[in-house]
Design a protein that fits this description.
Blueprint lengths: L1 E12 L15 H16 L4 H6 L2 E12 L8 E12 L2 E11 L4 E13 L2 E2 L5 H11 L6
Antiparallel strand pairs: 1-3, 2-5, 3-4, 4-5, 5-6
């Protein structure tokens, strides 16, 4: 697998309503954290999900693998670090790590595979790898 972008960083704060009765962030909320960070990456390189959808293209999650390392609680701040790999012409893999801020204590490691569909079907003109590489070049961001 080829790395196409390294070290995209995003931040967020844990909100009260994300915690369960145990006082820690509910495991399902981490999916949202990871998705929010991926969307921030796409936005940073000019990919507009609404415009893509209007063109019949949708970026969707194919697979997620998460390993929980340390629980978060309300008021915690986190840093999400993301590396993006080309898994194939049609698949991108996001390697995302969540760290407690500012201590950098590891909280979660995740691998998420994304694909792009054209009119709800895989298509050569909906290659997520091609779309992302084109935008990285357009925004003068080096493909690693």
């Amino acid at each position: 697998m080829e790395i196409i972008h390294k070290n995209f960083i995003s931040h967020l704060d844990v909100r009260d309503y994300e915690c369960d009765l145990q006082g820690i962030v509910n495991n399902a909320v981490y999916f949202s954290y990871l998705e929010h960070s991926r969307h921030m990456f796409f936005k940073s390189i000019g990919i507009n999900f609404s415009a893509m959808h209007d063109d019949g293209k949708d970026i969707v999650v194919l697979n997620v693998d998460m390993k929980y390392l340390f629980p978060l609680k309300s008021g915690d701040s986190v840093t999400i670090k993301t590396n993006i790999l080309e898994e194939s012409n049609f698949k991108l893999r996001f390697l995302q790590n969540i760290y407690l801020h500012p201590s950098e204590k590891p909280v979660l490691n995740a691998k998420t595979t994304l694909v792009c569909l054209k009119n709800n079907k895989p298509s050569i003109d909906a290659s997520i790898v091609g779309i992302v590489k084109k935008q990285l070049v357009s925004y003068k961001i080096a493909i690693v």
